[in-house]
């Protein structure tokens, strides 16, 4: 295969997919469009980190900006071996979707850490150890591969997703790098979407459930 043929195929297929062109869209369950966390608002005001009226709005685009890395989900088939005559053959009987891991940059107000802690507490109450209803603590999450112009070319929707692991945060006096948070999410299943359907799903995932 010549280089010219490879270039022709890549050009015909819209160029190369770049792993730094992606977007994650979701709104945690029960999160309001208006920031009602008075402790955070007062803390920002006292420390001079207040950003005017913008701090009163929970903008879903903030999550997309703070997501530094995400994995597209894996899917595998579980099989059983059946021996017929001398040959053992594998037969699939179900599929397994792998968990999804996201890495977030932590801001000075610990926005993503606080959000994930509140989300986890809505799944199992840390005081009463009461398990919540799945419809109330799960949400759809959309992961998009973007083209060079920022438009989606491929999408995956995680249906009824929720966090199952929020990583520890290592603080060190000798480390001047910014702090990160790793979150692992489970979900019912994922659905592969094209550019148009993924755009509609992203719009729906960005709207807080409190508005319905």
Layout of SSEs?
Elements: H1 3-12, E1 22-25, H2 38-47, H3 60-66, E2 67-70, E3 75-84, E4 87-97, E5 100-105, H4 111-123, H5 134-137, E6 139-146, E7 152-166, E8 180-186, E9 189-193, H6 195-206
Largest sheet entry = 7 strands, antiparallel
| Low-pLDDT runs | none
Order of helices and strands: HEHHEEEEHHEEEEH
Could you say how many structural domains there are in total?
Answer: 1
Q: Mean of the pLDDT scores? A: 84
Please tally the helical runs, counting DSSP H or I stretches of 4 or more residues. Answer: 6
How many strand elements?
Answer: 9
CATH T-level topology: Pnp Oxidase, Chain A
What's the Cα radius of gyration?
A: 21 Å
Helix vs. strand class:
alpha+beta
- CA-to-CA gap between the ends? 55 Å
Q: Tell me the overall shape.
A: globular
Name of the CATH class: Mainly Beta
Second CATH tier, the architecture: Roll
Estimate what percentage of residues fall within beta strands: 25-35%
């Amino acid at each position: 295969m010549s280089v010219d043929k490879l270039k022709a195929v890549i050009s015909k297929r819209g160029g190369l997919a770049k792993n730094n062109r992606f977007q994650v869209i979701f709104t945690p369950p029960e999160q309001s469009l208006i920031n009602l966390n008075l402790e955070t608002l007062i803390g920002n005001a006292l420390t001079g980190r207040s950003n005017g009226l913008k701090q009163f709005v929970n903008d879903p685009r903030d999550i997309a900006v703070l997501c530094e890395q995400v994995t597209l989900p894996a899917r595998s088939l579980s099989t059983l071996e059946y021996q017929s005559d001398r040959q053992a053959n594998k037969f699939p009987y179900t599929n397994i979707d792998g968990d999804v891991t996201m890495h977030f940059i932590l801001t000075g107000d610990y926005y993503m850490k606080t959000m994930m802690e509140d989300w986890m507490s809505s799944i199992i109450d840390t005081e009463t150890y009461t398990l919540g209803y799945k419809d109330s603590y799960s949400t759809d999450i959309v992961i998009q591969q973007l083209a060079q112009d920022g438009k989606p070319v491929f999408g995956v929707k995680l249906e009824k997703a929720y966090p199952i692991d929020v990583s520890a945060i290592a603080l060190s006096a000798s480390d001047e790098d910014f702090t990160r948070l790793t979150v692992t999410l489970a979900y019912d299943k994922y659905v592969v979407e094209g550019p148009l359907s993924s755009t509609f799903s992203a719009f729906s995932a960005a709207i807080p459930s409190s508005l319905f």
